[in-house]
Amino acid sequence: MMSQPPDKFDPQQPDANPQKLVDNSINKNAVRGNENSSVQGNDNKAVLGNSNTVFYGNNNQIQFVLPITEKQQQLERKIPSLLPYLVNRSKQEYELEKVIKKLIQKHPPSPLICIIHGDEFQSHDKFLERLHKVSLPKFIGQESIKQYHLPFPPKLNNSHEFSDYLRNTLADIVIQRSSASPEEINAFFHECSIPILIHTHLLTEQLQKKEFEILHNLLNFWHKWPIQSNQNLIICIFIKYQIRRKKYTRKSDIISLFFSFVSDFLKQYRYQKVNQKIYHHINSPSNFEKFNPLSILVLPELTGVSRGETEDWVRMEYTQNVIGEAIADKLIKGIRELFDKWEEQNSSNIIPMDDLAEDLIKLLKSNYQVREK
Where are the domains of the chain? Predict the structure, then answer.
């Protein structure tokens, strides 16, 4: 069963502040009415009525116009940006919730290192947003979580420079002073009243030459952290497998097309080999034994989504609170057609999250427009 968002997650609320409407009626004799007034225009006056309708008085005609900007604003308010990305990911949430419950009961508690991996079309950043806004607050029992992005170091000569870079960068983003010591950073972590989420992102091309050494340097940085007893600290390491999905178009220069194809094929082959090595390495618990007692959780791989999982998303309570039961059947029909088309074109019955979310947004907006007419 897919985990439900916490009570504080209100799908009906907009994701962005509404924009102010612009009054396009410019007339020196214009009269602005309020929500309770009833005003009739004449030959010389244009009257702006309540917040939903504009009355334009002219010689013999009164027109009723709904401002386009307000209609667009209503559509945006009804479709939260995170909604299409809440499809499935139940395996990942289940494993994460189990480990967090154990850590809360652990004495002394320790930070959690969470490794999240999947190909580059699985919406890693939206999964991070889901963790930050929905999943972790529910699992930990907190209304809000503070998050920091810890950038991965550039190419450095040795592990000592690697650790120095991470420490200085962490001090800068947490204390706003790069010279702050690890003790000062830990003091902030300890005194912070809400949990802290720190995330770092890695690509195949960054791990290509020394894949295990680079990852282990990052884990070693947290393993050597001076205080290992703060249950409010969660470190997420996102590993994004690059798969070089590229579509070719016809060109007049066949030779250029051939060499471009060969070059991309070789790069994709190298990426696949690195991806497989990383996958098997992170899914072998023995490779992380030297980092004990650090708690390291490798979540199930982020993969594409099936039709059944997407239809279940439509039936979930939080989705129906947004779309309404009236258009749920239309949405499920659209999903069926969407997966039939995808399987015909790609010979696969699962859709990467990037592509699926983009199509779901189109379906949602299309059905809203039908309902509002």
Answer: 90-298, 305-372
Q: Which residues contact 165 (CB under 8 A, 6 or more apart)?
A: 153, 154, 156
Kind of pairing between the strands at 350-351 and 305-306: antiparallel
4/317 Cα distance (integer angstroms): 8
Task: Print the SS3 string covering 17-48.
Answer: CCCCCCCCCCCCCCEECCCCCCCCCCCCCCEE
Instruction: Find the helix or strand (DSSP H, E) in which 55 lies.
Output: strand 54-57
- Tell me how many degrees the CA angle 112-118-121 measures, rounded to the nearest 5: 130
Helix, strand, coil abundance in the chain, percent, nearest 5: 50, 15, 35
Q: What's the chain's length in residues?
A: 373
Q: How far is CA 185 from the centre of its chain?
A: 27
Tell whether domain 90-298 is in CATH 1.20.120.
Answer: no
Q: Please, are residues 139 and 100 in contact by the beta-carbon 8 Å criterion?
A: yes
Q: How far is the C-alpha of 273 from the C-alpha of 168, rounded, in Å?
A: 34
Whether pTM exceeds 0.70: yes
User: Using one digit for the tens of pLDDT, what is the confidence trace for 222-273?
Assistant: 998 876 555 578 999 999 999 876 654 555 467 666 666 677 777 778 889 9
**Alpha carbons 193 and 195: distance in angstroms, whole number:** 7
Judge contact between 351 and 305, C-beta under 8 A: yes
